[in-house]
Amino acid sequence: MKTAEIKRRFLAHFAANGHTVVPSAPLPAIEDPNLLFINAGMVQFVPYFLGQRTPPYDRAASVQKCIRTPDIDEVGKTSRHGTFFQMNGNFSFGDYFKAGAIPLAWELSTKPVSEGGFGLDGDKIWATVYLDDDEAIEIWHKTVGLPLDRIVRRGKKDNYWSMGIPGPAGPCSELYYDRGSDYGPEGGPDVDEDRFLEFWNLVFMQYEIADVRSKEDFRVVRELPSKNIDTGMGLERIASILQGVDNLYEIDEVRPILSLAAELTGRQYGAKSGHVAGESHPDDVRLRVIADHVRTALMLIGDGVTPSNEGRGYVLRRIMRRAIRAMRLLGWQEPALPLLLPVARDCMAPSYPELATDFDRISQYAYAEEDAFLSTLRAGTTILDTAISDARGAGQASLSGDKAFQLHDTYGFPIDLTLEIAAEQGLSVDQEGFRRLMADQRARAKADAQARKTGHADLSSYRAAFDSGGPVEFTGYHEVTRESRVRSVLSSGGVALPAAGEGETIELVLDATPFYAEGGGQQADQGLITVGGGQVEVLDVQQPLPGLIVHKARVVRGEVRPGDTGYAEIDVTRRKAISRSHTATHLVHQTMRNFLGESATQAGSLNAPGRLRFDFNTPGAVPPSVLHDVEQQVNEVLLGDLEVHAFITSQEEARRLGAMALFGEKYGDEVRVVEVGDYARELCGGTHVSRSGQLGLVKILSEASIGSGVRRVEALVGIDAFGYLAREHLLVSRLAELYRVPNDQVAERVEQTVTQLRDAEKELEKLRAQLVLGGAASLASSAREVGGIAYVGTEAPEGAGGNDVRTLAQEIRGKIDPARPAVVAVAARAGGKASLVVAVNQAARGRGVSASDLVKGALSGRGGGSPDLAQGGGLPATEAPRLLASVEQALATES
Ligand code: ATP
Ligand code: MG
């Protein structure tokens, strides 16, 4: 059964049982600061499970795209771990519980294929349950009919689910399929998890837990009044079972990539391995890694991630490099992605058609990344070759850890490649030293990350602040002041305080607030909160948990306590300037797309008072003429004075209206749409002006690259834009005044002046050379006999360049009778340094005199040239006379 069909049957089964089918959220988990990627189907429903939002349905089902970075190292070595995989899931929000979930899973798994099920042999299915979950055992045994010897009790590590924080938790029950004796020993999941393959996990959210010290150490507070179900069935795992293949790299959605990689590298996949993944030949493991990683890269770039050196982009870069590297280790040196990626696309497009329509963009990023990495490999190889021959030359048997680390750190050259190439040349590598340097670097990076966390490391006090009153109401779309109760006062480290006094830096939570928390690229509001006799100055506003608005503030006078009534007022001037920037960003975004096409999507933005930064994806530089047109069009929209309007609607309606929904936007029940007339329409939670005319003016300042395929424009808005143009105008007027020309002729005039200046410099150069050379004849005639040789020693006139000095020495030599052996030495001072040129004629050379010997003698080895003409320098300027003296001395003693 094809993977796409399995997916269809899964959704159909649960739709027929009253579930609403919900689309997959995009891979980047932008709403959760602790998560890079969505790693389970339940992630997009977390606010429902935590009771922060009311679910619009009681039952839902989805096929969620997932990435689990901790599993990357397992890929290819087990039969069941992909970096990217899809999780089929059914969810109940306070509706059915164990007695509903277990039979629903059993029914779909074992129903005959002809009746829409998966047709698994029920005799091969095992179930695990949590130690004391007799209720689940009862259902498995009595309702479903599973014999007790195929129901296994397991502990917290395997069969208890929680999020590692206070909140919902509960036992799980997993379904395993016995693949038979070819895959491992008897004995059930406790004995062998590759033979007994986990394909479905049912989580029963039954309890509320607190005092969480670890995933296994916590206190159960109470039984939840409203219990939930969260299940996850690995789509690839069930596909590997139903397609009768050994592992999930051999299913229809992955195998074609693997096969092509094998063909390109001339391997016969599987020829040297049996059924057990853990005992596979390394080449087969590599082919699986390639197939998995290429598919994962496709899905990631498809969801808007681009290669970079940190965060999500770094994960992408790492897996792409691993795939390319594995191809290389198998002997393929050429770019591989132009061949492999289209195959991955053809595998996945039936389920994700946008991969095909967007493939131009996706492949541009992928191919560029591979090209860059291949040239890194080439450069690194050259450096490594040099290091190897140096080490050899010095008689060493191994390459230093320093060198290996430098190659890794500076050139991104992988250590395994260093090892391999060194080994080919008969050298070992100081791996111990390398690892030590790596560990040092990791420690530095960790300390750095810790420092940047700005006191948000521990979320528990925020969680408590949230729990004691639910989401904080944001009223700032419509008002700039608000009276509200102080819910909690926290120290800046996040500890709840009974009160805070003057001078203290605190974090304040109100029940409702007009203060906008930094988010969606928009900077936070600032302002004042007056409480009783006290007053706090709000410096920053953040949202450490979704729905919890925290004011970072300083108490300027009096005292503030939880329960006080506060009067919050934002700095309106700042807010207005930020709102102008935010609306301007929407206009710049839309206009960029008008000119560059749909693929110019937002990659990040900053909306600050009076200025904005907008990052977007596009393969090359934006030509100045396009930038000019963008700016012009944006300003025309301002003149149109369009109404800016925000409204809440369903996700579907927003899409129907063509709102720009960025990859980060999560599917949910309701979204906020901001539209500027009919010109721009975008999902957005930020604040905006009410008419485009209020922006006044938008001035684009610059456009530059900030990474491969990502460009950044910076612009000024409103009075800041005006101020900038006014200053520029003043500057031009001042130049015009200086040049005594009208403003529009300044450029021409500057150009003329520059040309004139350059001509004058050339002229000056010529005159100076003439001056220097003018003295040549009289200097020649002043030659003295030293050791039987005609010798001229002189200092060049001030300001003579290196060329002048050489020419002067040759000129003097030319003016001395060729029949006389002659040596000319010219010393010069320039830039605080002394230099020396020595010219020797034919007759003197006949007597064994060499210019380069003389220079080297005078400069103790520094300098060189031919026997006729040599030069050197680098000594302090005051040494010039001594240089001449030492040449003369050498001639005197030579004879
Ligand atoms: P395992 O112990 O095999 O790693 P898990 O306990 O981490 O699995 P869950 O967190 O329960 O798995 O996820 C639910 C389901 O998702 C699993 O039953 C499995 O079918 C699937 N799954 C989990 N991780 C992966 C992966 N890396 N690749 C493919 N499928 C996976
Ligand atoms: Mg796992």
Could you describe the 3D structure shown?
The protein is α+β, with helices and mostly antiparallel strands. The chain contains 26 helices and 34 strands. The strands form eight sheets. Strands 1, 2, 3, 4, 5, 6, 7, 8 and 9 form a nine-stranded mixed sheet that branches. Strands 13-15-19-18-17-21 form a six-stranded antiparallel beta barrel. A six-stranded mixed sheet has the order 29-30-31-32-34-33, with helices on both faces. Helix 7 (255-264) packs across helix 8 (282-302), helix 8 packs antiparallel against helix 9 and helix 13 (401-411) packs across helix 15 (431-452). The radius of gyration is 38 Å and the shape is globular. The N and C termini lie far apart (101 Å). The model is unreliable at 451-457 (pLDDT under 50). The structure holds adenosine-5'-triphosphate and magnesium ion. Adenosine-5'-triphosphate binds next to strand 3, strand 8, strand 9 and helix 6.
Q: What features would you highlight for this structure?
A:
26 helices; alpha+beta; 895 residues; binds adenosine-5'-triphosphate; 6-stranded antiparallel β-barrel; binds magnesium ion
Major sheet description: 9 strands, mixed
- The rough form would be described as globular
Small molecules bound in the structure, each named once:
adenosine-5'-triphosphate, magnesium ion
* Helical residue percent band: 25-40%
Determine Rg (CA atoms, Å): 38 Å
Which stretches of 5+ consecutive residues score pLDDT under 50? 451-457
Return the structural class: alpha+beta
- Figure out the total of helices: 26
Give the termini separation: 101 Å
Tell me, rounded to a whole number, the average pLDDT. Answer: 90
Strand content: 25-35%
Total number of beta strands: 34
